[in-house]
Amino acid sequence: MKIKNLLIDKHNDIFGEAPELVVHSPGRVNLIGEHTDYNDGFVLPIAISLGIDIAISRIPDSEVISVYSLDKEKKIVSLYTDLMKSSGNDDWANYPIGVVKILRKNGHKFGGVRVSFTGSIPEGAGLSSSAALEVAVAYGVKQLYKLNIKDKDLVKYCQQAEQEVVGVRCGIMDQFTAKFGKAENAFFLDCRSLEHRYIPLKLKSAEFIITNSNISHKLSTSKYNERVFECEEAVKVLNEVKPGKSLRDYNKDDYEKAREFFTPEEKKRAFHVISENNRVIEGEKSLKQGDLKKFGQLMNDSHESLRLYYEVSCAELDWLVETAQKIEGCYGSRMIGAGFGGCTLTLIEKKAIPEFIEKLKGYQEKFGIAAITYEVTPSDGVHKI
Ligand code: GLA
Q1: Residue ranges per domain, the chain?
Q2: In 68, 87, 164, 298, which residue has its Cα 20 to 30 A from 276's Cα atom?
Q3: Are the beta carbons of 152 and 180 closer than 8 angstroms?
Q4: Ligand 1 in reach of 34 Cβ (< 6 A)
């Protein structure tokens, strides 16, 4: 429990008191179903062992959050009554501050908090360090102040914080995974009803690995929000064919009927989301059957669709994916998360991993940066440590 002791010591140093609670919250890797969550669609993620750890204590009779980042060696203090604002270079502080303010906005009453935190998720890798931090803080505040918040509402508050404070019109996948992830399991999530079911991951001699392109994706807010908007516009066109609220409500036949009325962008975005939702449904079946070949093919198709139709990949991600796909023993590979950098996910026979790692030397030669590979271990959602 090295991290726990480190956090306890730092919390003491910075705030002059011991924390009352130490919490771990995981990052996520999405196996399949990209850019479907904000379209009310399906996703199939896992929580991973990398994550965020926080120490937290109460400040009685106060309305202030004081947050210290061990990694940035910086403290930021904010009154609950202050307007929420993006704090330039200190935008890391928006996540914990945003969460407490959203909890209050939703009618939950509690006093001040001191939070110190550190993370093991590489920054900008698209593994959802922000959602992990949000969920850790919401969970910590809920526990300490014994707030009456249902788990799914806690997840929604964290999503709301990201949308309102950080300004990303994100879906619910990342926050949901940080709360509901389960060791040794992936899960299928319906992002409209929030119903979910776990799928034990039995990979035999294969493994999921992630490869960090080291192109920091910085959730390119404007591009991400642009995609959300394009999907909404595509729904307006599809409404001429059949009533519906989001791309989730449409299938390939509806798409064909509306085809000629879309702008070129709307056509591509709708095509991706509709086909990706089907891939998640197929993906769940193939994982349950242990059909890795089929699942790998779905991953490859997902990447192609994200590259060609959703246009969120980049040269570095494509290189990593194509290099993996050529290796004997690789079932499939694709970019994960929002895109524009970040990580790829590869399903590969364990014995073929050294060959892949060897090939990554070519990445360094071509792009002048190193790509790092991590093993993916499905892990539990947020919990006390
Ligand atoms: C980011 C968002 C998620 C989801 C993915 C793309 O991680 O936070 O809500 O939209 O991108 O699938």
Answers
A1: 2-198
A2: 164
A3: no
A4: yes
Task: Please choose from 32, 173, 340 the residue to mutate so as to test ligand 1's pocket, defined by most ligand atoms within 8 A of CB.
Answer: 173
Give the pLDDT score at 124.
81
* Catalytically annotated residues: 174
For residue 211, give every residue at least 6 positions away whose Cβ sits within 8 Å of its Cβ, in sequence order, or none.
320, 324, 343, 344, 346, 360, 371, 372, 373, 374
Identify the pLDDT of residue 219. 55
Could you tell me if the CB of 269 is within 6 A of ligand 1?
no
37 lines ligand 1 (CB under 6 A): yes
Residue 89 has pLDDT above 80, yes or no: no
- The C-alpha atoms of residue 155 and residue 177 are separated, in whole angstroms, by 9
Percent of the chain predicted with pLDDT > 90: 92
CATH numeric code, 2-198: 3.30.230.10
| pLDDT of 87 over the 60 cut | no
Q: Which residues have a Cβ under 8 Å from the Cβ of 101 and sit 6 or more positions away?
A: 80, 84, 161, 165
Q: Which residues contact 344 (CB under 8 A, 6 or more apart)?
A: 210, 211, 213, 317, 320, 321, 324, 333, 334, 335, 336
**Average pLDDT over the chain, rounded to whole?**
95
Mean pLDDT computed over 279-301: 98
- Would you state the pLDDT for residue 210? 98
| pLDDT tens for each residue of 308-367 | 999 999 999 999 999 999 999 999 999 999 999 999 999 999 999 999 999 999 999 999
pLDDT at 217: 67
Residue nearest to atom 1 of ligand 1 (CA): 338
Distance of CA 202 from the midpoint of ligand 1 (Å): 25
User: Is any ligand 1 atom within 6 A of the Cβ of residue 53?
Assistant: no
CA of 173 to the centre of ligand 1 (A): 7
